[in-house]
From TrEMBL:
GO MF, one annotated term: protein phosphatase regulator activity
UniProt entry keywords in alphabetical sequence: Repeat, WD repeat
InterPro entries for the chain: PP2A_PR55, WD40/YVTN_repeat-like_dom_sf, WD40_repeat_dom_sf, WD40_rpt
The protein, known as: Serine/threonine-protein phosphatase 2A 55 kDa regulatory subunit B
UniProt keyword Repeat present: yes
Organism: Lactuca virosa
Family according to the record: Belongs to the phosphatase 2A regulatory subunit B family.
Length: 507
């Protein structure tokens, strides 16, 4: 991320793109349908979504090569040098049940089926591979393409007796529908036979309509290696290993070995009363397979080199905000807990999200972040209420654009906050995750001055709390929260979730 690129970046103009699973007004959402993980693959052609019911739904981009090529030919014929860039659109591909609810009889605890994290692996031989995890078990899935031959309805053109047609029809269904044909295509009965066939007219089955499909199979299962709940998994750039992290330990796995892993970080003290922090997230470097970063509940980010020692927490570069001027209170360490970290594609910067802020770090400047963006600073006077209703423990994801100049995260009232790295963009852009609602945060110097101190913030809150023009700024629906978000790796497209709904926006 060069300084020139950073200074030249400007806020993007965001527009609604797509929605899947949109709720109707007043419709209740069951807990098992709430989305709990979102992840694009490296190409951006596929998007995986996991929910609390243990299901994984995969979307793929629509085929638009013909449209793009026609537009290119049209521009060439007209002598135009402009290139029309179309944002990708997605369609449903397949879904599968990744995890089931379990019960640990040794510890007498229930293990939820909720999908905590999803990570795409290296694509091999045209097949897709994905890691999914709940609290205890990690699974490697293979999503394989298959051809499905759909059987169309009867063609009423042949003069065969009705009795003969029914006999041939029943024979066809009793044999062919239970097995695959010689060329490997699976037969699928999709249309019912019309009952309005006259006795003198019959038909034959047309099975030439072939469509693409996909099936998912579990190829590996990595379990019984974590005493505490898994909060993150991350694939290595070498394509052979990955890490899994719980509250106190980080384990290194080989994708081919399911019964053995190496413990590379162990923060468990000999006496649990001496425990001062827990691990909240772990991510491999995008380029260097030996570099790993993990965050803690105290707001620290540790960058380790796995070549230096077997136990990586003994030699680590610590990134911490030593210049923070926030007054220390009972809630200071709680809101400082980092819930998500992401490496930028330049390999030099790290984006982190704690409860109140989104911070961009330079790995060569460990004492303070490059920039910090306030997400919902207006909630600081209400930290006591947020603590009492457990909202202060909500974990928000963060994401970074492919060029490293734009960042996004979620907030309450189904709001998404998007920032551009540059001058004069401290307030960023606010989007409400819905089909029709779109709002830009007002860039007013008066509002920035009012938020310059905690006392001014408190006075501004009570003064403007019932003002219609500032209602979205100072009111907050804690039940409607945008926790999960992911940025397309190659274009400015963001996927985010609220409840069971998946929204996409493009710029």
């Amino acid at each position: 991320m060069s300084s020139t690129a950073a200074n030249s970046s400007s806020p993007l103009d965001w527009k609604f793109s797509q929605v899947f699973g949109e709720r109707r007004p007043g419709e209740d959402v069951e807990n098992i349908d709430v989305i709990s993980a979102i992840e694009f693959d490296k190409s951006g052609d596929y998007l995986a979504v996991g929910d609390r019911g243990g299901r994984v739904v995969i979307f793929e981009t629509k085929a638009s090569k013909d449209v793009t090529s026609k537009q290119h030919l049209r521009n060439a014929s007209e002598g135009s040098d402009d290139v029309v860039i179309q944002h990708p659109e997605y369609r449903y591909k397949t879904e599968f049940q990744s995890h089931e609810p379990e019960f640990d009889y040794l510890k007498s605890v229930e293990i939820e089926e909720k999908i905590n994290k999803l990570k795409w692996c290296t694509t091999l031989n045209g097949s897709l591979f994905m890691l999914s995890t709940n609290d205890k078990t990690i699974k490697l899935w293979k999503i394989k393409e298959r051809k499905v031959k759909k059987v169309k309805e009867m063609d009423l053109t042949r003069n065969v007796s009705s009795e003969s047609a029914l006999l041939s029809e029943s024979s066809f269904l009793s044999h062919e529908s239970k097995s695959s044909v010689a060329n490997g295509h699976q037969l699928e009965w999709i249309d019912n036979i019309k009952t309005s066939v006259s006795p003198s007219s019959t038909g034959y089955m047309n099975g030439e309509n072939i469509v693409d499909g996909a099936i998912a199979r579990c190829r590996r299962m990595y379990g019984h290696a974590h005493d505490y709940n898994i909060n993150s998994i991350s694939n290595n750039s070498d394509g052979e290993t990955f890490v899994s992290a719980d509250d106190l330990r980080i384990n290194l796995w080989n994708l081919e070995v399911t019964d053995q892993c190496f413990n590379i970080v162990d923060m468990k003290p000999s006496n649990m009363d001496d425990l001062t922090e827990v691990i909240t997230s772990a991510e491999f470097h995008l380029l260097h397979c030996n570099l790993l970063a993990y965050s803690s509940s105290r707001g620290f980010i540790r960058l380790v080199d796995m070549r230096q020692s077997a136990l990586c927490d003994r030699s680590a570069t610590m990134l911490q905000d030593t210049e923070s001027r926030v007054q220390k209170t009972f809630f200071t360490e709680i809101v400082a807990s980092i819930s998500s970290i992401k490496f930028a594609t330049d390999g030099r910067h790290i984006l982190s999200r704690d409860y109140m802020n989104l911070k961009l770090w330079d790995m060569r400047m460990p004492t303070s972040p490059v920039v910090a963006y306030k997400i919902h600073e207006h909630l600081r006077p209400k930290l006591c209420d947020l603590y009492n209703n457990d909202a202060i423990f909500d974990k928000f994801d963060c994401c970074i654009s492919g060029d490293g100049n734009h960042f996004a995260t979620g907030s309450y009232s189904n709001h998404m906050r998007i920032f551009s790295n540059g001058v004069g963009t401290e307030d960023g852009t606010t989007l409400e995750a819905s089909r029709h609602s779109y709002r830009k945060r007002q860039q007013q110097s008066a509002s920035r001055a009012r938020r310059s101190s905690l006392s001014n913030l408190t006075r501004g809150f009570y003064k403007q709390g019932h003002d219609a023009s500032e209602n979205n700024e100072f009111s907050c629906d804690l039940k409607s929260k945008l926790l999960h978000i992911s940025w397309h790796p190659k274009t400015n497209l963001i996927a985010c979730s609220t409840g069971n709904s998946l929204f996409m926006y493009h710029a």
